[in-house]
Design goal:
Bound molecules: pyridoxal-5'-phosphate, the ligand N[C@@H](CCSC[C@H](N)C(=O)O)C(=O)O
Number of strands: 14
Largest sheet: 7 strands, mixed
Mean pLDDT: 90
Strand content: 5-15%
Helix content: 25-40%
Low-confidence stretches: 1-18, 437-444
Number of helices: 15
Shape: globular
Strand order of the largest sheet: 1-7-6-5-4-2-3
Length: 444
């Protein structure tokens, strides 16, 4: 991994024949091949691949060193060494990117400063006049960026019900440049049929890119590139890092031209992930499997607990989810985010504020359990009128389940439900009051 200042004649010759250049004609930083190339070796189970890495560190460091350096000295006045400047490339970031490419089943992965930074890089592939088709239940920040592009960059954005593949195909045209999907959607936990939409999109317009935000599931539970997506991205702030101690975003694809274009934007705008955060993300990824397994198991117990006490719960691990079969036809697990309604905004506020173990916080994917009201918090950037048009229940409570003891989480939630007056207590236990019959039910 580390290199001496003076390169051997063979390495110098290799640098001279470096043929890959960026859009400006500059030599590209190190190849995007996975850190543990699969060619010639058995592919292990994902839990193993997450921790297994190979590097050529000169001291055999088992954890990737943090190359906390903005610049890299060159061996000749022509430059041309593997790295010159951390905005363009850094060994710690490259190591992470190669590892991510491997676990995301991609030939190229790129790491940037946040999930929104990742979407910014992807949407810079668009030109004025291009059309984007996306969902009507989306993370608030995604909605905000798309609205900015619509209002300022001449990009036409269609928000349709992506849970119905026909709604997407109805608006596809030769101007469609991108179809942007989230599944399960945040926060209504609706499921989107990626293979059907990808197939229909590519059939109707072979140039249109299908982009999937995989933040909710992570590569542990879904590989969108394997089921028709052209680009996958996720917020590394969530499950990939797992501890809410960094902001990060990752992008992956299997088309080298697309990868080079997005790398160009990262180098040109300077949004690549810092060496220190690359190190932390790499460390986080190694425990993704055990964290996700525990978080998911806890989420399942909590979803069943709430449903059995009369709450309307949105979670794809529950058979009552209207798109249960569709979800399981694509994914390897249900994830650890669920939402439920109470029928009353003030009641939801009291529940959220009565919890102790559950942190009142935006975000998800952390080892700690979090509780929030999306319409007030994570999705507040979607204006109230639009939220109403999209039938986002203002009383919705989102639970992002961590790795604590499930019994403690359920006890804390039970106490909060009773204290907030959300349930009728009887000698046999307790049961939710009737949720307003008019409020929206989870629907396909
Ligand atoms: C589904 C989804 N995508 C993208 C993002 C953006 O990620 P970040 O906060 O890392 O910018 C978030 C949350 O912030 C999210 O929930
Ligand atoms: N104030 C932030 C809110 C971030 S929400 C983070 C996460 N995606 C979630 O769904 O909780 C903003 O305006 O972006």
């Amino acid at each position: 991994m580390a290199t001496s200042n003076r390169l051997s004649p063979a390495s110098q010759a290799a640098n001279k024949v470096f043929t890959r250049v960026d859009l400006d004609g500059h030599a590209l930083p190190p190849s995007p091949a996975p850190s543990s190339p699969l060619s010639g070796r058995k592919r292990y189970a994902l839990a193993t691949e997450l921790v297994y890495t190979e590097s050529k560190d000169q001291y055999g460091a088992s954890s990737i060193p943090i190359y906390q350096s903005a610049t890299f000295k060159q061996t000749s006045s022509n430059g041309g060494n593997e790295y010159d400047y951390t905005r363009s490339g850094n060994p710690t970031r490259t190591h992470l990117e190669r590892h991510l490419a491997k676990i995301m089943n991609a030939t190229r992965a790129l790491a940037v400063g946040s999930g929104m930074g990742a979407l910014d890089v992807i949407t810079r592939l668009l030109k004025p006049g291009d059309e984007v088709i996306t969902g009507d239940d989306l993370y608030g920040g995604t909605h905000r960026l798309l609205t900015y592009l619509k209002n300022n960059q001449g990009v036409v954005v269609h928000h349709v019900d992506t849970t119905n593949a026909d709604s997407v195909t109805e608006v596809i045209s030769d101007k469609t440049a991108m179809v942007l999907l989230e599944t399960p959607t945040n926060p209504l936990i609706k499921i989107v049929d990626i293979p059907s939409i990808a197939r229909a999109t590519h059939e109707a317009n072979s140039k249109a890119l299908v982009v999937v935000d995989n933040t909710m599931l992570s590569p542990m539970l879904l590989n969108p590139l394997d089921i028709g997506a052209d680009i996958v991205y996720e917020s590394g702030t969530k499950y990939l890092s797992g501890h809410h101690d960094i902001m990060a975003g990752v992008i992956a694809c299997n088309d080298s031209e697309l990868g080079d274009k997005m790398y160009f934007t990262i180098n040109a705008t300077g949004c690549g992930l810092s060496p220190n955060d690359s190190f932390l993300l790499m460390r986080g990824v190694k425990t993704l499997a055990i964290r996700m397994e525990k978080q998911q198991a806890n989420a399942h117990q909590i979803a069943e607990f709430l449903e059995s006490h009369g709450f309307r719960v949105r979670y794809p691990g529950l058979k009552s989810h209207p798109q249960y079969d569709l979800h399981w036809s694509m994914a390897r697990g249900a994830g650890a985010v669920l939402s439920f309604e109470t029928g009353d905004v003030a009641l939801s506020e009291r529940i959220v504020e009565a919890t102790r173990l559950w942190g009142i916080s935006v975000s998800f994917g952390c080892v700690n359990s979090l509780i929030s009201m999306p319409c007030r918090m994570s999705h507040a950037s979607i204006d109230a009128k639009t939220r109403q048009e999209r039938q986002m229940p203002e009383d919705l409570i989102r639970l992002c389940v961590g790795i604590e003891d499930a019994g403690d989480l359920i006890d804390d939630l039970s106490r909060a439900l009773v204290q907030a007056g959300a349930v009728t207590v009887t000698l046999d236990g307790f049961h939710a009051h009737d949720v307003d019959a008019d409020s929206e039910t989870p629907s396909a």
